[in-house]
Amino acid sequence: MPLQRSHSPFCDRHCHGGWDGALQRWTVAFALAFTSIGCRSNQPMPDRVLTATKVSSEINVSSELNGRTNLASAVRLGTPTAMQQAGVVPHFYNDRVEPASTGSHDPFGGKQDTRRLIELASAKQAGQLDISTTTSSVPPLGGSQSPEFWDLTESEMITLALQNSDVIRSLGVRVLEAPASVTTAYDTAIQATDPMFGPQAALAEFDSQLSASLTTQNNDRVFNNATLGGQVQELVQDYAQFQSGWTKRNTWGTQWDVQSIHQYDSNNRAGNSFPSYWETQLELGVRQPLLQGAGRTFNLIAGPNARPGLNFSNGIWIARINSQISQADFEIQLRDYFLELYTAYWQLQRLYHSYDSIRQARDVSYEIWQTVLSKKQSGLIGGEAYKEAQTRAQYYRYQREADLALGGSEGETGIRNAERTLRRMIGLPIADGRLLRPADGFTTAPFEFAIDDSVARGFQHRTELRRQRLQVQQQNLRLVAAKNFLLPRLDMIGRTRVRGFGDDLTGDGPRFSSAAEDFFSFDHAEWEFGVEMGVAPLRRQAKAAVRNAKLQLHRERSILEEQQHAVTFEIHDAISNSQSSFAALQNSLARVEAGQDRLASSRALYDAGKIQLEFLIDATEELLQSQRQLHVDQTNYSLSLVRISRAMGTLLSDVGVHSYHR
């Protein structure tokens, strides 16, 4: 009989269901297994977590969400504090704060392997800070209290700088190591009052000179020959002489001199008409150069007693030009000082804005960190340990940048460094309980400059060109004076003299009874007239001086032409840089606006669970970098306008500063 398969009740119950029943049973078992190990979605969906837990867990998680909401509110109020969530007891695990399991809302459902895997993936390095003890708020500018600010305007800065800047505090000059290179407000006056080569010293060469002398003698001489002694063997004599004189040289080269001589003589010569007598005389002399050294031009350039090769520093015109050159040097240093002053002012303004942007980014990153931390402590999706560590690291990075932006470091300037620099430049004390803060904002308005007009203004007002023109003028004058030495020396001389003789100096009586009466009778008038000539036939020194003066003149003219080219290029570059800086400023403004929109959108999407945390962090970083670049571009544009004024040579007049001689 054929074999037949018997049917049993068990088979009827479990086998007749077919594969459909088995598939359903396996599906239910698989779903229960995923539920037991806490299956998660990639998107942070708190509602799914709530529906997958027990009723008691729903209550605990709800209280945690309320605590997280309070935490976010606290962050918005500016009190960044790590708050302990309700129902979460912190304990340390590998120097990291972890929420202890309560058993009723454990997101891992008691699966210790899954917990340990995430802990190993997010484990810290030894020595890392504890997040529960390093979240105190940072007050503005790093102090326990808000400091007192001094809102300094540009006009106040200029006024203080002029009042306190006897020494021009250029940042590139080492006042301790090289004090001789420092420019001060006294330099032009020092040069003008140089007693050897200043203008007054040159004028002094043409001043009148007065002289006087009084001498007395008592002589007692014995002569071997009586004739030599005036018919006496022993000469006994009382002698006195008073002499006064006046000399003067004018700018034409003429030399005048007047001398007055009074003599008294009492001796025992046998042939004397009077035992004692007086003699008085008045002498007038003149010397006028006709070739070499003649003429007003030469004497004003070279001065009296000039020699080739000495640069004629005693000439009035040369000395005055030297004084003007010294004044131009001072104006150049003063102009560059104001450029550095404005640079320090705008750099401090930039650092304040940059510090504010970093603080804003720090506060945003802190809020993000606290949000992720609350999710982690609540066991919600999006609070993974690596995300909490990432946001925490970003917060401390911004906190570090804020500290450096405030105090500075080696190779990096902070607000306090820049503030001290500005204080030093305007001559304020290093600290007075207040912080300087620029009150004037950045320039954002567009400016247009005509190239040709700007170059023309530069040629007219640029101090370097004015200084070099003085150098050319000075060398031209030296050439004129050097050519004068090619002429021979030919002087006309003249002298006249009137004498008076008498027994007494004054009085009445017959002839020779009074020296004064005899003098005014003009009976003893003398005169002298003649010419003097001298010449070096080869004139080597004079020819070398002329050749040297010509080369010096060509050199200074070449330098002037090159300086004009340099000023032209500098003005073109300054205007071009200003235009480029303005374009960069507009782009930075647009970039900041886009960054703000991106951060707001990213924050909304992250709160809705539609993007990952990294996108929000990247949006925060992008906004910070765009803001910092904006501050740099604002500074560059404001300084570019100052540099245009400097390139045209109108910076001092534009800020209302005029130098003068002390």
What features would you describe in this structure?
The structure is a single chain. By secondary structure, this protein is of the alpha+beta class. It is 51% helix and 15% strand. α9 (296-302) crosses α14 (463-484), α10 (316-378) packs antiparallel against α11 and α10 packs antiparallel against α12 (415-426). The radius of gyration is 50 Å and the shape is elongated. Mean pLDDT is 79; it is low at 1-19 and 30-144.
Topology:
Elements: H1 9-14, H2 18-36, H3 46-51, H4 55-76, E1 90-92, E2 97-99, H5 112-121, E3 148-152, H6 154-164, H7 187-192, H8 199-204, E4 209-222, E5 234-249, E6 255-267, E7 276-289, H9 296-302, H10 316-378, H11 385-407, H12 415-426, E8 434-438, H13 451-461, H14 463-484, E9 489-502, H15 515-520, E10 524-534, H16 540-607, H17 613-648, H18 651-654
Parallel strand pairs: 3-8
Antiparallel strand pairs: 1-2, 4-5, 5-6, 6-7, 7-9, 9-10
Helix pairs in contact: 4-10, 9-14, 10-11, 10-12, 10-14, 10-17, 13-16, 14-16, 16-17
Structural class: alpha+beta
Largest β-sheet summary: 6 strands, antiparallel
Largest sheet, spatial ordering of strands: 4-5-6-7-9-10
Which regions contain 5 or more consecutive residues with pLDDT less than 50? 1-19, 30-144
- The radius of gyration over CA amounts to 50 Å
Compute the number of strand runs: 10
Strand coverage percent? 5-15%
Could you say which overall geometry the principal axes of the C-alpha atoms support? elongated
List SSEs in N-to-C order.
HHHHEEHEHHHEEEEHHHHEHHEHEHHH
Distance between the termini: 142 Å
- Please, how many helices? 18
On the 0-100 scale, what is the average pLDDT? 79
Task: Please bin the fraction of helical residues.
Answer: 40-55%
